[in-house]
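seq:
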Amino acid sequence: MKKKQFGCMAVAAFLLTLVIGMGRPAWAGTETITLFAAASTTNAVTDIAALYEKEHPVKIRLSFASSSTLAKQIENGAPADIYLSANPKWMNYLAEKGIIVTESRRDLLGNSLVLIVPGDSPIDGLRVDAGLDLAGILGEGRLSMGDPDHVPAGMYGKNAMQQLGLWDAIADRVARTKDVRAALVLVERGECPLGQVYATDAAISDKVRVAGYFPEESHPPIIYPAALVKHSPAARSFLDFLQAEPAARVFEAYGFTVR
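struct:
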């Protein structure tokens, strides 16, 4: 009887172990890499992370937001292993505080600025120069853009519009968003007749059209730097992969310039 009872207990223990094992994610027990990346890189970086995970025994956790928001979170102790910013300013911010691994820093990507409209808008073929009547085009509407006080896309956009002499006429008619993807959404929904985003953001949406391109010389070069936040062989390996040919192909497919 005792022998039979012991056998039943062994079977029960085995089944319990099996159930627990089935409930655990496939990557349980493997190393985890946490990447904080600019919102504009969401689609490309998500694809690249999945590509990397197929060939390496790691789990990559991704957090996307405005570069400024991510930098502040990292400053306050958020557990990031890698930081990918949409401009040098916020990488410099962390570097000055001694938070990133300086020698690991590298410039990964470039981008360009565009004006977008809802897919059914009659607005098209805008020549973005000093003669553009942005206020007239907006009518009673607002220009959707990342908050130029801290969102890189908006900072680049404000700079460009100031250089072209367009900013003063529309400065009080801007719908400031928390990041560039939020600016895209306002135009997708038709809540704003015009938006300023990166070309890569416009490319991922079938609900908007590019109505005009900002001249490259109207703003500083758009640079996406990346760096380790902490020393980690696994994180360094993934950071290196972000510059490798397979990752470059993904970035280019989404419209980024690979540096």
